[in-house]
Specification:
globular; Protocatechuate 4,5-dioxygenase, Chain B; three-stranded mixed beta sheet; nine-stranded mixed beta sheet; alpha/beta; 283 residues
Length: 283
Protein backbone atom coordinates (compact mmCIF):
# COMPACT_ATOMS: atom_id res chain seq x y z
CA UNK A 1 0.00 0.00 0.00
CA UNK A 2 1.30 3.45 -0.92
CA UNK A 3 1.58 5.67 2.10
CA UNK A 4 0.25 9.01 0.91
CA UNK A 5 -1.42 10.64 -2.09
CA UNK A 6 0.21 13.98 -2.78
CA UNK A 7 -1.99 16.86 -3.96
CA UNK A 8 -2.35 16.99 -7.73
CA UNK A 9 -3.93 20.43 -8.24
CA UNK A 10 -2.54 22.61 -5.44
CA UNK A 11 -1.37 25.91 -6.99
CA UNK A 12 -3.66 25.22 -9.98
CA UNK A 13 -7.15 24.93 -8.46
CA UNK A 14 -6.33 26.44 -5.05
CA UNK A 15 -3.36 28.04 -3.23
CA UNK A 16 -0.54 25.68 -2.37
CA UNK A 17 0.49 27.42 0.85
CA UNK A 18 -1.31 27.08 4.17
CA UNK A 19 -1.78 30.78 4.95
CA UNK A 20 -3.33 31.84 1.64
CA UNK A 21 -5.42 28.68 1.38
CA UNK A 22 -6.92 29.14 4.84
CA UNK A 23 -7.45 32.83 4.21
CA UNK A 24 -9.29 32.16 0.94
CA UNK A 25 -11.57 29.48 2.42
CA UNK A 26 -12.38 31.53 5.50
CA UNK A 27 -13.22 34.51 3.29
CA UNK A 28 -15.61 32.35 1.26
CA UNK A 29 -17.26 31.10 4.45
CA UNK A 30 -17.60 34.60 5.89
CA UNK A 31 -19.27 35.77 2.67
CA UNK A 32 -22.13 33.26 3.01
CA UNK A 33 -25.20 35.24 4.14
CA UNK A 34 -26.65 34.12 7.47
CA UNK A 35 -30.14 33.70 6.04
CA UNK A 36 -28.90 30.90 3.77
CA UNK A 37 -28.02 28.74 6.78
CA UNK A 38 -30.65 29.94 9.27
CA UNK A 39 -33.15 27.34 8.07
CA UNK A 40 -30.75 24.50 8.82
CA UNK A 41 -29.75 25.89 12.18
CA UNK A 42 -33.42 25.88 13.16
CA UNK A 43 -34.63 22.73 11.44
CA UNK A 44 -31.90 20.33 10.36
CA UNK A 45 -28.60 21.41 11.83
CA UNK A 46 -27.87 18.05 13.41
CA UNK A 47 -29.24 16.00 10.57
CA UNK A 48 -27.27 16.83 7.40
CA UNK A 49 -26.94 13.59 5.41
CA UNK A 50 -25.15 14.91 2.33
CA UNK A 51 -23.92 18.03 0.62
CA UNK A 52 -23.54 18.53 -3.15
CA UNK A 53 -20.72 20.88 -4.15
CA UNK A 54 -18.77 21.97 -7.26
CA UNK A 55 -15.14 21.15 -8.00
CA UNK A 56 -13.73 23.88 -10.24
CA UNK A 57 -10.90 26.23 -9.37
CA UNK A 58 -11.67 28.04 -6.13
CA UNK A 59 -11.80 31.47 -7.81
CA UNK A 60 -14.75 30.22 -9.88
CA UNK A 61 -16.64 27.82 -7.62
CA UNK A 62 -15.20 28.16 -4.12
CA UNK A 63 -17.79 30.71 -3.03
CA UNK A 64 -20.61 28.42 -4.19
CA UNK A 65 -19.09 25.43 -2.36
CA UNK A 66 -18.85 27.52 0.81
CA UNK A 67 -22.64 27.66 1.09
CA UNK A 68 -22.75 23.90 1.69
CA UNK A 69 -19.66 23.80 3.86
CA UNK A 70 -20.96 26.61 6.06
CA UNK A 71 -23.68 24.19 7.22
CA UNK A 72 -20.96 22.09 8.82
CA UNK A 73 -19.67 24.77 11.20
CA UNK A 74 -19.22 23.40 14.73
CA UNK A 75 -20.04 19.92 13.43
CA UNK A 76 -18.05 16.74 13.95
CA UNK A 77 -18.06 13.80 11.55
CA UNK A 78 -16.06 10.64 12.10
CA UNK A 79 -16.22 9.58 8.46
CA UNK A 80 -16.68 11.63 5.29
CA UNK A 81 -17.50 9.69 2.11
CA UNK A 82 -16.60 11.63 -1.04
CA UNK A 83 -18.07 10.58 -4.39
CA UNK A 84 -17.07 12.27 -7.61
CA UNK A 85 -16.71 11.64 -11.34
CA UNK A 86 -13.51 10.34 -12.89
CA UNK A 87 -12.16 12.85 -15.42
CA UNK A 88 -9.02 10.99 -16.50
CA UNK A 89 -9.55 7.23 -16.18
CA UNK A 90 -12.33 5.04 -17.57
CA UNK A 91 -13.63 2.02 -15.68
CA UNK A 92 -17.04 0.44 -15.32
CA UNK A 93 -17.63 0.51 -11.59
CA UNK A 94 -16.21 2.55 -8.72
CA UNK A 95 -12.56 3.25 -8.00
CA UNK A 96 -11.17 3.31 -4.46
CA UNK A 97 -7.66 4.53 -3.61
CA UNK A 98 -4.97 2.24 -2.28
CA UNK A 99 -3.39 4.84 -0.01
CA UNK A 100 -3.17 5.34 3.74
CA UNK A 101 -3.78 9.09 3.51
CA UNK A 102 -4.51 12.05 1.22
CA UNK A 103 -2.41 15.18 1.62
CA UNK A 104 -3.25 18.85 1.09
CA UNK A 105 -1.34 22.00 2.10
CA UNK A 106 -3.35 21.83 5.34
CA UNK A 107 -2.04 18.39 6.29
CA UNK A 108 -2.85 14.72 5.83
CA UNK A 109 -6.21 12.97 6.20
CA UNK A 110 -6.25 9.24 6.92
CA UNK A 111 -8.45 6.91 4.91
CA UNK A 112 -10.97 4.65 6.66
CA UNK A 113 -9.35 1.38 5.58
CA UNK A 114 -11.93 -0.95 7.13
CA UNK A 115 -14.74 0.67 5.15
CA UNK A 116 -12.77 0.60 1.90
CA UNK A 117 -12.13 -3.13 2.34
CA UNK A 118 -15.76 -3.72 3.28
CA UNK A 119 -16.99 -1.94 0.14
CA UNK A 120 -14.86 -4.23 -2.03
CA UNK A 121 -16.06 -7.31 -0.17
CA UNK A 122 -19.78 -6.39 -0.13
CA UNK A 123 -19.81 -5.44 -3.82
CA UNK A 124 -17.86 -8.38 -5.23
CA UNK A 125 -15.29 -5.86 -6.49
CA UNK A 126 -17.85 -3.59 -8.18
CA UNK A 127 -16.02 -1.20 -5.87
CA UNK A 128 -12.32 -1.89 -6.38
CA UNK A 129 -8.89 -0.40 -5.71
CA UNK A 130 -7.74 1.56 -8.77
CA UNK A 131 -4.98 3.97 -7.73
CA UNK A 132 -4.39 5.27 -11.25
CA UNK A 133 -7.86 6.81 -11.27
CA UNK A 134 -7.03 8.93 -8.22
CA UNK A 135 -3.51 10.16 -9.05
CA UNK A 136 -4.49 13.22 -11.12
CA UNK A 137 -8.18 13.53 -10.17
CA UNK A 138 -9.32 16.91 -8.80
CA UNK A 139 -13.04 16.33 -8.14
CA UNK A 140 -12.42 14.95 -4.63
CA UNK A 141 -9.14 16.68 -3.81
CA UNK A 142 -10.59 20.20 -3.96
CA UNK A 143 -13.14 19.29 -1.26
CA UNK A 144 -10.52 18.32 1.30
CA UNK A 145 -9.20 21.77 2.33
CA UNK A 146 -12.79 22.90 2.97
CA UNK A 147 -13.37 19.88 5.21
CA UNK A 148 -10.05 20.43 7.01
CA UNK A 149 -11.01 24.04 7.65
CA UNK A 150 -14.63 23.60 8.73
CA UNK A 151 -14.60 20.36 10.76
CA UNK A 152 -13.18 20.68 14.26
CA UNK A 153 -12.34 17.02 14.88
CA UNK A 154 -10.06 14.41 13.36
CA UNK A 155 -12.03 12.66 10.66
CA UNK A 156 -11.26 9.94 8.13
CA UNK A 157 -12.31 9.80 4.50
CA UNK A 158 -13.61 7.27 2.00
CA UNK A 159 -12.80 8.65 -1.48
CA UNK A 160 -14.83 7.10 -4.32
CA UNK A 161 -14.67 7.83 -8.05
CA UNK A 162 -17.49 6.74 -10.36
CA UNK A 163 -16.73 5.32 -13.78
CA UNK A 164 -19.67 4.47 -16.05
CA UNK A 165 -22.54 6.76 -15.02
CA UNK A 166 -25.54 4.52 -15.62
CA UNK A 167 -28.64 4.34 -13.44
CA UNK A 168 -27.94 0.63 -12.92
CA UNK A 169 -24.51 1.46 -11.49
CA UNK A 170 -25.88 4.28 -9.34
CA UNK A 171 -28.61 2.07 -7.90
CA UNK A 172 -26.23 -0.84 -7.23
CA UNK A 173 -23.70 1.48 -5.57
CA UNK A 174 -26.40 2.98 -3.34
CA UNK A 175 -27.52 -0.48 -2.26
CA UNK A 176 -23.94 -1.46 -1.42
CA UNK A 177 -23.31 1.75 0.52
CA UNK A 178 -26.57 1.24 2.40
CA UNK A 179 -25.50 -2.24 3.44
CA UNK A 180 -22.18 -0.89 4.69
CA UNK A 181 -23.55 2.16 6.51
CA UNK A 182 -26.99 1.12 7.78
CA UNK A 183 -25.55 -0.19 11.04
CA UNK A 184 -22.47 2.02 11.12
CA UNK A 185 -22.19 3.43 14.62
CA UNK A 186 -20.14 6.53 13.75
CA UNK A 187 -21.25 9.94 12.51
CA UNK A 188 -20.92 10.10 8.72
CA UNK A 189 -21.48 12.52 5.84
CA UNK A 190 -21.64 12.08 2.06
CA UNK A 191 -19.99 14.78 -0.07
CA UNK A 192 -21.00 14.69 -3.74
CA UNK A 193 -18.82 16.54 -6.23
CA UNK A 194 -20.21 17.88 -9.51
CA UNK A 195 -20.15 20.86 -11.82
CA UNK A 196 -23.12 21.58 -14.08
CA UNK A 197 -23.38 22.66 -17.73
CA UNK A 198 -20.15 23.41 -19.57
CA UNK A 199 -19.31 26.14 -22.09
CA UNK A 200 -22.72 27.38 -23.14
CA UNK A 201 -23.84 30.98 -23.11
CA UNK A 202 -25.10 32.34 -19.81
CA UNK A 203 -28.70 32.20 -21.04
CA UNK A 204 -28.41 28.64 -22.38
CA UNK A 205 -26.64 27.44 -19.23
CA UNK A 206 -29.34 28.81 -16.95
CA UNK A 207 -32.06 27.00 -18.91
CA UNK A 208 -30.23 23.66 -18.69
CA UNK A 209 -29.16 24.11 -15.09
CA UNK A 210 -32.62 25.17 -13.92
CA UNK A 211 -33.96 21.96 -15.47
CA UNK A 212 -31.37 19.99 -13.51
CA UNK A 213 -32.23 21.86 -10.30
CA UNK A 214 -35.91 20.90 -10.69
CA UNK A 215 -35.03 17.22 -11.13
CA UNK A 216 -32.50 17.28 -8.31
CA UNK A 217 -34.98 18.98 -5.97
CA UNK A 218 -37.50 16.24 -6.81
CA UNK A 219 -34.79 13.70 -5.89
CA UNK A 220 -35.41 11.69 -9.06
CA UNK A 221 -32.16 9.82 -9.73
CA UNK A 222 -33.37 8.01 -12.85
CA UNK A 223 -34.66 11.18 -14.53
CA UNK A 224 -31.42 12.94 -13.68
CA UNK A 225 -29.39 10.34 -15.58
CA UNK A 226 -31.96 9.96 -18.38
CA UNK A 227 -31.94 13.73 -18.97
CA UNK A 228 -28.15 13.78 -18.83
CA UNK A 229 -27.89 10.99 -21.40
CA UNK A 230 -30.40 12.81 -23.64
CA UNK A 231 -28.44 16.06 -23.41
CA UNK A 232 -31.25 17.98 -21.70
CA UNK A 233 -28.95 18.72 -18.78
CA UNK A 234 -25.21 18.50 -18.18
CA UNK A 235 -23.37 17.57 -15.00
CA UNK A 236 -20.05 15.74 -14.94
CA UNK A 237 -21.12 14.29 -11.59
CA UNK A 238 -24.69 13.38 -12.50
CA UNK A 239 -23.87 9.77 -11.66
CA UNK A 240 -22.50 10.51 -8.17
CA UNK A 241 -25.54 12.76 -7.56
CA UNK A 242 -27.81 9.88 -8.60
CA UNK A 243 -25.99 7.56 -6.19
CA UNK A 244 -26.70 9.84 -3.24
CA UNK A 245 -30.33 10.39 -4.28
CA UNK A 246 -30.88 6.63 -4.31
CA UNK A 247 -29.00 6.27 -1.04
CA UNK A 248 -30.99 9.05 0.60
CA UNK A 249 -34.19 7.22 -0.36
CA UNK A 250 -32.92 4.04 1.32
CA UNK A 251 -32.05 6.00 4.47
CA UNK A 252 -35.36 7.88 4.32
CA UNK A 253 -33.56 11.22 4.05
CA UNK A 254 -36.09 12.70 1.67
CA UNK A 255 -35.50 16.44 1.74
CA UNK A 256 -33.16 18.37 -0.54
CA UNK A 257 -32.56 22.11 -0.72
CA UNK A 258 -30.50 23.96 -3.32
CA UNK A 259 -28.69 26.70 -1.42
CA UNK A 260 -27.23 28.69 -4.28
CA UNK A 261 -26.65 28.56 -8.05
CA UNK A 262 -24.10 30.59 -10.00
CA UNK A 263 -21.95 30.23 -13.09
CA UNK A 264 -18.39 31.14 -13.96
CA UNK A 265 -19.43 34.21 -15.93
CA UNK A 266 -20.06 36.03 -12.66
CA UNK A 267 -16.34 35.71 -11.90
CA UNK A 268 -14.73 35.78 -15.35
CA UNK A 269 -17.17 38.25 -16.98
CA UNK A 270 -17.17 35.89 -19.96
CA UNK A 271 -20.84 35.08 -20.47
CA UNK A 272 -20.37 33.30 -23.79
CA UNK A 273 -18.78 30.10 -22.39
CA UNK A 274 -19.79 29.53 -18.78
CA UNK A 275 -19.74 26.59 -16.36
CA UNK A 276 -22.58 26.14 -13.88
CA UNK A 277 -22.19 25.47 -10.16
CA UNK A 278 -24.55 24.74 -7.28
CA UNK A 279 -24.51 23.94 -3.58
CA UNK A 280 -27.22 21.73 -2.08
CA UNK A 281 -27.92 19.77 1.08
CA UNK A 282 -29.89 16.60 1.81
CA UNK A 283 -31.34 15.79 5.24
Amino acid sequence: MEENRKPAVASIFYPDDTINLKRMINQFLSNVPAESTDFFKKNAFDNIFSIIVPHAGYIYSGQVAAYSYSLLKQKEYDTVVLIGPSHFAYFEGFALPFYKSFETPLGRIDLEQDLLNLLVKKSNSFFDFINTAHVKEHSLEVQLPFLQTILTNDFKIVPILMGEQSYKNAKEAAETLFEVFKNYDKHFLFVISTDLSHYHTDEEAKVMDNELIKTLSGMDAKKLLDDSKAGKIEACGAGPAAVVLELARLFNRNRLKVLVYKNSGETSNDYERVVGYLSAAIW
